[in-house]
Amino acid sequence: MCTLEKRGGLFLLMLIGDGQHQITADLIGKLLSHLSQVKAQATPGSVLITQAQGKFFSNGFDLDRA
């Protein structure tokens, strides 16, 4: 689904797997959890980089699971 890695003041948020990374309630929950961690641990000058494995960063909403 997604991971968060911290390297000093750098936060790397990665959508993992080679799927389409469609947006679901589960993914939104995970992203919000990771963003809360970033907010709690960030210091002046911190940077958040988002990235994804596979062909798509996100291919939109998963309407079948909406």
Automatic annotation (TrEMBL):
SUPFAM superfamilies: ClpP/crotonase (SSF52096). It comes from the Eukaryota. GO terms for molecular function: isomerase activity. Keywords: Isomerase. This is ARABIDOPSIS THALIANA DELTA(3), DELTA(2)-ENOYL COA ISOMERASE 2, ENOYL-COA HYDRATASE/ISOMERASE B.
